[in-house]
Amino acid sequence: xxxxxxxxxxHTDLMTVNMGPQHPATHGVLRVEIKTDSEIVAExxxxxxxxxxxxxxxxxxxxxxxxxxxxxxxxxxxxxxxELGYSMAVEKMLGTEVPERxxxxxxxxxxxxxxxxxxMFFGTYAIDLGAFTPFLYAFQDREEILRLFEExxxxxxxxxxxxxxxxxxxxxxxxxxxxAQFCDKMEENVKKYHDLVGMNKIFRDRTANVGVISEEMAxxxxxxxxxxxxxxxxxDLRKKRPYSIYEKFDFNTVVGKGEMGxxxxxxxxxxxxxxxxxxxxxxxxxxxxxxxxxxxxxxxxKIIKVPEGEIxxxxxxxxxxxxxxxxxxxxxxxxxxxxxxxCFTHTSMLGELGKxxxxxxxxxxxxxxxxxxxxxxx
Length: 378
Fold this sequence. Notes:
The protein is of the alpha+beta class. Helix content is 49%, strand content 12%. It has helices at 2-9, 55-59, 68-72, 79-94, 100-128, 133-153, 173-198, 201-207, 215-221, 225-229, 237-240, 266-290, 342-347, 350-354, 359-369, 373-377, and strands spanning 15-19, 31-37, 40-47, 162-163, 166-167, 309-317, 320-328, 336-340. The strands form three sheets. A three-stranded antiparallel sheet has the order 1-2-3. The protein has a three-stranded antiparallel sheet with strand order 6-7-8. The N and C termini lie far apart (61 Å).
């Protein structure tokens, strides 16, 4: 009787653990404060701002061309896609017509960047879950894309390649030929990678039925990109609200199907990103076939003064929709440039997703939403 009374008086507290800001499972300088009940996550609170660079404020003091290197540094793993949305926003306000060859080059480069970004996800996600070799395979293929980007722009990570009115440098026939060869090789490699990782029993056990984002939750938080499509929702701006010249291309929207577990789990988000590589290859082949000779820069004044007004323009980036709200007072610099980040939105879901998970499963969940903190913090 005495022993049972002692048990009733026993009191335990939740233990607070900081995951990050310097932690391999946080994909950057993200801090998540976790309150744990043994191995179970009772609460998870993300803390942001460790990579904040006042990017939006800086842009108010830069001319319109000078903003481009700053948008590069948001999602530094998809810098070309960052540049595309901003350049299009300024061009629409100016009424600038972009030459057709430049539009084709933009699509080619953007889809190569999407492949490179998804390869980075594939490799680092495998590391999150204990497999190292896929990371080496992914980086080997990504390296070919970065070499091409270096030839086009002079840089391997932050490019300043899309300029207002077109692109900085033309692409030559040899580079187009190499892209076609890369597409053929990449198509075969992705099949192997999926068999190696996606169909691996350990990987499936670690990702199926883990971190489930229901359709309702995806809508509530405003998810987009692969996170939204992983929950079975057919929405891709390139198909639903075509921009640039995407309406010319035939490709499919990849959505999660709940093949290995519950619809909207970590495996579905993995599946969407890996199989989007095949769709990017389809677009690339059509663009390589359709590109013709011509100029790569439209007519843009030396000193750009955007007419007074505002615009909101969004594009489909590798991690989701990126929106630019550009406000002009008619001067040489933006009056306001506000960026809507999909990564910021997805990070806000972690508190709800983490509750009740094992710590190891929470690591798998963070990796599956594929955030880049440069875009979150700006």
